Amino acid sequence: MEFRVLPSGHDDIVNATLRNLTVPACLTGAEGALTSIDLTIKDGRLTEPDPAVPQIDMCGAMVFPAFTDMHTHIDKGHIWGRAPNPDGTFDGALATVGADRIANWSAEDVRARADFALRCAYAHGTRALRTHVDSLAPQAAISFPVMSELREAWAGRIELQASALIGADRIDQGAEFTALADLVAEHGGVLGSVTYPMPDLPTRLRDFFAAAGARGLDADFHVDETMDPGVETLRLIAEAAIDTGFTAPITVGHCCSLSVQEDARAQDTLDLVARAGINVVSLPMCNLYLQDRHAGRTPRRRGVTLVHEMVARGIPVSFASDNTRDPFYAYGDLDMIEVMREATRIAHLDHGRHDWTHAFTTTPARACGFAAPDLTPGAPADLVICRARSWTELFARPQSDRIVIRQGRQIDRTLPDYAELDHLMRTV
């Protein structure tokens, strides 16, 4: 029998009390790992208990607020069919994506692939998503209007945010970077960059923060996505943020090189990150795919950043999907349950702290400025319910029969067919 709240067709309105749910205790303020909860849904929202509505025994099923996926690339997603990574390396990904962008990334192409990605995320239970947008001219002027159209089209289902993505070598006080910052502001986006070692990077970072600050923009960086311990641009970002007094939210992603640095040096960098108030997002699935890849050699180092040490310092840590079916990651489906399962295994989140659920729900929402998910009366009834009563049951299976409720409706979770994109895979 299909796992459902209501027995009839899809898109049902739920007005009921879901009894005997299991919830991560940290989401309710309770002690320990898991606790039991009842949730009453009426008119699309969670309400105080109401004996007049139907009472449904959920038999201990685990419930989460709908997820926030704060680091994705839906502009380049699902191009593997026409642009596979030739060797699985980071350099192979860069070259392959660059060539495909020049050849194929029209507004129609980006829109079709990005909408496909959003339909996947929605079906899996995501309520808010930040995507990075490749922003070398002329692509930014093509892709940002598409993301704005999608944000409007998806309003009420997925809250969409777009972050510019350029190399640090493009940050300066010239016309091109100024025009990009203006375009990002026009479309209500986030200013972002990929940082790597450059002699004048501190100056460029100050120019970046000046441009973002002048336009009231948040900042989001791809940082130190390498196994080279000598790459330390994260330190420079933290120092520039402190020195400039930049007050808007700053997010850094990846930070892989921290994992291979001398412990004292890495810890000192983390002290700077904490002082600067920077948010960190770890992308373990993509980093596992790209890092320490050498033909014919088993990988030794897997690239996950120092999430335990960060959380111990009060640094806000999140996990996210990153790329999907493109040269940077051949797999993935914007499924935050998968991200949670794999992050738990890869980063050993399963012993010690009981509050890692925040890293997939409340912490990324706050980092991006989305409304924080909530399970208290008055909150929207945006829920993901899994047929599992414990963490080991949850992570042992993919939870492909999960229930997703959005604004009090149990949605149709049918995923889009990859064949829909076949016409885009035929290139000249």
Architecture overview:
This protein has 428 residues and is α/β, with parallel strands linked by helices. It folds into two domains: 12-65 and 374-410, Urease, subunit C, domain 1 (Roll); 67-368, Metal-dependent hydrolases (TIM Barrel, Alpha-Beta Barrel), CATH 3.20.20.140. It has helices at 90-104, 107-124, 139-153, 175-186, 201-215, 233-244, 263-276, 284-290, 307-312, 336-347, 362-368, 391-396, 422-425; strands at residues 12-13, 16-24, 34-42, 45-47, 55-57, 62-65, 67-72, 126-134, 159-165, 191-195, 219-223, 250-254, 279-282, 317-319, 383-386, 403-406, 409-410. Helix 2 (107-124) packs parallel to helix 3, helix 5 packs across helix 6 (233-244) and helix 6 runs parallel beside helix 7. It is globular. The chain starts with 11 loop residues before the first strand and ends with a helix. It holds the Pfam family Amidohydro_3.
Short structural summary:
The protein is α/β, with parallel strands linked by helices.
Q: Could you list some keywords that capture this structure?
A:
428 residues, alpha/beta, Urease, subunit C, domain 1, TIM Barrel, 2 domains, five-stranded parallel β-sheet, 13 helices, 17 strands, 20% strand
Topology as a string of helices (H) and strands (E): EEEEEEEHHEHEHEHEHEHEHHEHHEHEEH
Given as residue ranges, the uncertain stretches (5+ residues, pLDDT < 50) are none
On the 0-100 scale, what is the average pLDDT?
A: 96
What would you give as the CATH superfamily of the largest domain? Metal-dependent hydrolases
| Count of separate structural domains | 2
N- to C-terminal distance: 47 Å
The helix content, as a percent range, equals 25-40%
Q: Which strand order does the major sheet show? A: 1-17-16-15-6
Biggest pleated sheet: 5 strands, antiparallel
* Shape designation: globular
User: How many DSSP-defined strands?
Assistant: 17
InterPro entries: Amidohydro_3, Metal-dep_hydrolase_composite, Metal_Hydrolase, Metallo-hydrolase_Enzymes
Domain Amidohydrolase: 186-410
GO molecular function, one term: cytosine deaminase activity
GO biological process, one term: cytosine catabolic process
